[in-house]
Amino acid sequence: MHESVLLKESIDSLHIQKGGKYIDATLGGGGHTLEIVKRDGRVLGIEADPKMLAVAKRRTSGSRPVLVLGNFRDIASIAKANGFEKVLGVLFDLGISSVHLDSDDRGFSFRNEDVPLDMRLDQSRQGVTASDLLNSLNTGQLTLLFESKRIAEAIVAERRLKPFEKVSDFLGLFGPKTGKIHPATKAFMMLRIAVNSEYENLEVALSGAFDLLLSSGKLVVISFHSGEDRIVKRLFREFGESGRARVEKLILPTLAEVKANPRSRSAKMRVLTKT
């Protein structure tokens, strides 16, 4: 089961009120939603991955949150369709879950090199796979995607010999792991982000979430890498400078949490209050 990072801190930051409406924009396994329900909040959970939605439904059965399959970029229309037009808080726990990294067969991690290089969160709604991007984008487009002309040229040279199909095909460009971090880690993440349009969707979603907040409502975002956090930090600053919000102190995981869950070490939580 995925272990939610900064769970207590994020739920405390929402200031749950009995009967109040909240949106868990990244439902995942349902950990945050369960905690909100335990504090008598009403929850709309949004999940882009049908497999994770099924996990969350099993985990939260009996607690009666409203769980919906959809992308958080559509948070405004999903909220309206489910009676959550105005809410006291919205939570985003970005990135992918431990389930994706440990046991998924869509190529999200290095653990199984023989699976297809897919990386789509919703295979029924998304058409373009990771291998499609690697096999079709030109050198300039690949350079922008990976922020590296060297990687782009290596991809183009490799696909002339053999198309990219499996995880191992992509990992082969980077050589074996020699230290603590695999040399393909950053590129692998950037490819997943591109497949799922994560940056573009996040910008739209945060603006939509802010508009849904009641006065004094909370927007809580947990990010795990600098690309996500830059977007969150910039938008929060814009909301604050406009006089429409108050940006609160950055929260990081404790040393105890990092020791218990090493994947939490890069987490950053930003909190905003609508004024």
Question: Explain this structure to me?
Answer:
The protein has 2 domains: 7-99 and 199-274, Vaccinia Virus protein VP39 (Rossmann fold); 127-195, no CATH class. The radius of gyration is 19 Å and the shape is globular. The protein is built from 13 helices and 7 strands. It is 44% helix and 15% strand. Helix 3 (50-59) links the parallel strand 2 and strand 3. The mean pLDDT is 94. It has helices spanning 7-14, 31-38, 50-59, 75-81, 98-103, 130-136, 139-146, 149-161, 167-171, 185-195, 198-212, 226-241, 255-260; strands at 21-24, 42-47, 66-69, 87-93, 213-223, 245-247, 268-274. A 7-stranded mixed β-sheet has the order 3-2-1-4-5-7-6, sandwiched between helices. With 275 residues, it is of the alpha/beta class.
Task: Give the topology.
Elements: H1 7-14, E1 21-24, H2 31-38, E2 42-47, H3 50-59, E3 66-69, H4 75-81, E4 87-93, H5 98-103, H6 130-136, H7 139-146, H8 149-161, H9 167-171, H10 185-195, H11 198-212, E5 213-223, H12 226-241, E6 245-247, H13 255-260, E7 268-274
Helix pairs in contact: 7-8, 11-12
| Average pLDDT over all residues | 94
Low-confidence stretches: none
CATH class of the largest domain: Alpha Beta
User: What is the structural class?
Assistant: alpha/beta
The number of distinct helices, counting runs of at least 4 residues, comes to 13
Quick one: biggest sheet?
7 strands, mixed
The total beta strand count reads 7
Compute the number of structural domains: 2
CATH architecture type of the largest domain: 3-Layer(aba) Sandwich
What would you report as the Rg, rounded to the nearest angstrom? 19 Å
Helix/strand order: HEHEHEHEHHHHHHHEHEHE
Query: Strand fraction band?
Result: 15-25%
The backbone outline, from C-alpha atoms, is globular
Strand order of the largest sheet: 3-2-1-4-5-7-6
Percentage of helical residues? 40-55%
Spatial gap, N to C terminus:
37 Å
The CATH superfamily of the largest domain is identified as: Vaccinia Virus protein VP39
CATH-defined topology of the largest domain: Rossmann fold
